[in-house]
Amino acid sequence: MPGLMTMMALAPSPPMSVRPCFCNKMRGTTMLLVKNRSSSQAHLLGRRSWRAPAATTVATAAATAFHVDEQEREEMMMRRLAEDGWVDEHMLPLLTPVEEAWQPADLLPSFVVSADEQRSQVAELQARAAGVPDDLLVCLVGSMVTEEGLPGYMSMANRVAGGGDATGCDDHGWARWLRGWTAEENRHGDLLNRYLYLCGRVDMRRVETTVHHLLGRGMRAMLRPSSAYHSLIYGSFQERATFVSHARTARQAGLHGDACLAKLCGVIAADERRHEAAYTRAAARAFEDDQDGMVRALAAVMRAKITMPGELMDDGRDERLFDHFSAVAQRSGVYTAADYADMVEHFVRRWKVAELGAGLSGEGRRAQDYVCGLPRKIRRMEELAQDRAAQMGAQSVCFSWVFDRPVRIH
């Protein structure tokens, strides 16, 4: 999760004429043509250029009808997958039954034992945590803060047309998935928060202030928050990015001698892997139903430079806190541009994007070409970014999370 926004920023942006997301593509393109034609008519016909607004109105009406048709198709797909039992068969089994699931109390010092044993367990945890470097602690805090923003993420997911939980206890498959996913995710922030509190290495008040700010600020909307296609694609990428970052943190914690932290991040990574599998399956199913709509949605999501869940984090001091956190994650290897390029390649292969054929529209074929060529562009841009960084001197930023100690960002 950390750093993905920065990695997405490496993806080349489309020209302004094609900047709108795919649901507005027809409107954006048509209006551009009308604008160009109107300009020519104004030059050639003088007073008759007043006809352009009428043409624009027609184009806008057509685009609105197109948008409604796409949204209805996506909503129908979501309802069908719930009604025919697909969600129950292919997604819900990826949630762990509550009785079998780990809980934070299973993995941290126990307060069931005697006071002396409690002190011994906490002392051991702190001794192991003493070897964790500040850059890894910054990555860990940023991940924990992001995990704690869960109420906003559930609210966002509940906006998806055909996939929401209207009453809070709906019985259809998507509603049960959303609540089950939320219940599993809720443990992640709890687990990391308690570890950080016990380890004594971070300023918990500044960390808690950051969580408070993030919950109050919320999350910027995706391209089209109600879009099932955008949501499934976003969820697939987000869960895989989170899996990668937690798995890398686990590996590095182990190398620095903190077996407890390695285990905590490992169990979280395993959860994220199952969640990724669920969203990836659902997106693959949507590709089977509407390959043209899905490949256009995928290209739109890639072009938009995904807004990350924790982007609005704020500790009350550093106005660029998320950017600096992302830079530390990149430099420390917890999440890098190369990981993002690998992810794009993974999903292109998983969803067989390069193999899509006869059912694609002209716009769909252009979207296919763009997505399939994106990993190469990202890697090239990463090389250029590394070359620029190599020419710059070392730069550090003081993070309030680690008592204002300086941490290198490049």
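(the above was protein one; protein two follows)
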Amino acid sequence: METARVQSVASTCTSKEDIPSDFIRPENEQPGITTVGSTDFEIPVIEINDSDEERLAKVIAKASSEIGFFQVTNHGIPRDVIDNLQRAGKEFFELPVQEKEEYSKLPGSLEGYGTALQKESEGKENIKGWVDHLFHRVWPPHVINHRFWPKNPQSYREATEEYTKQLRGVADKLFRCMSIGLGLEANELKDGAGGENLEYMMKINYYPPCPRPDLALGVPAHTDMSTLTLLVPNEVPGLQICKDGSWYNVDYVPDAIVVHIGDQIEIMSNGKYKAVLHRTTVDKHRTRISWPVFLEPPADFTVGPIPKLINDENPAKYKSKKYRDYAYCKLNKLPQ
């Protein structure tokens, strides 16, 4: 069953091979032109159940500094926990549009349901992303607003809470290893981002079939402004990362969690770890859905390069600022 939004998009097309002009990217962004085909470039897949944390830290640090992106397997989250999360999210997006709109964003709020979220200014034009989405915080308890959590399907809350509980352990292990990989104490990187007050923001991206996937994008090129993004997709590929100016497809790895290094980790590491530039493509025949969780500092928490990583030979490359101020500048395309 397709959403009402998909039907409304389709109704504006003049043929099966057309899409509305406000979804067509400029040629230098069109995936049909800019995607690299066969390549020897390999995206790291890391087993994180290695009991040798020092060895694991080196592997994760290498991927974080060279690419800013990797996938982790043997992470300990049971398959049925991920299945339940994905089933509940898929069922929500298959509801009638008027029911989904009960969870629409409120003025000034990032949380809630929205359609065609991604818009960029290209001269006088606004180019839309081929995507619907739902945003809401899932941790810690004091920042959760259940007004934005779907009540239908009934399993949504339980499935989301259990997945969040399991994901926190994975996140903590990644923070420890990345911190050790910088020569820091295991707790320092997480503490530098807010510690136990770190906020987990879940987003469900719903990318319906697109008649011209060579012309459109689900989400345009960007880096995440969070610390880390931990993502589980469905089986439909669509994620791409940029390496040395070229765009590469990310293969779907069953049972893996996709890890993006975000802006705040790049800042705290003083550029040692790289925020990955990425985008999402869409499929002509299949619906792609992804569940990223963004690990964000509290709004009033100040993030900057960790002092131990700064010296005369390696001066600070980034300003220290409150996360809310960083986010405001990024969202409004202002200098940092």
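Reviewer note on protein two: Residues 42 and 250 are 9 Å apart (CA to CA).
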